[in-house]
């Protein structure tokens, strides 16, 4: 059964850091990778980061490169997103979902986690 649960969001000041966590069911481990995407108010989905279930390789969206790090826990069922030097434009609901070499799955697998960055 599919299961995705995001956590760790909150309110943070610009320049601060935040770490999001995502727990997924084994079903999602059959995909190329697990990633994070986000949706800011009034905007469409944007890919943030992806980590391969096969070899741990990663890639990032242009807007977060150098500020975000995606990683897996001891179990591949847990994926983290460390965001540093946060900006007000990082304010969004962050979703965890499968990803591939072609990009991110923008379907809503979980409820998402709200991140709000104050200026």
What does this structure look like?
The structure is a single chain. The mean pLDDT is 96. The chain has strands at residues 4-7, 10-13, 18-24, 33-39, 45-52, 58-60, 68-72, 78-83, 92-100, 103-104, 113-118. The strands form 2 sheets. Strands 2, 4, 5, 6, 9, 10 and 11 form a 7-stranded mixed β-sheet that branches. The radius of gyration is 13 Å and the shape is globular. With 119 residues, the protein is an all-beta fold. A hairpin with a 5-residue loop joins strand 7 (68-72) and strand 8. The chain has no helices and 11 strands.
Distance from N terminus to C terminus (CA atoms, Å) equals 40 Å
Mind telling me the C-alpha Rg?
Answer: 13 Å
Low-confidence stretches: none
The helical percent reads: under 10%
Which sequence of SSEs, written as H and E, runs from N to C?
EEEEEEEEEEE
* CA-based shape: globular
Give a brief outline of the structure.
With 119 residues, the chain is mostly beta strands.
Secondary structure topology:
Blueprint: E1 4-7, E2 10-13, E3 18-24, E4 33-39, E5 45-52, E6 58-60, E7 68-72, E8 78-83, E9 92-100, E10 103-104, E11 113-118
Key descriptive features of the protein:
single chain, 119 residues, mainly beta, seven-stranded mixed sheet, four-stranded antiparallel sheet, 0% helix
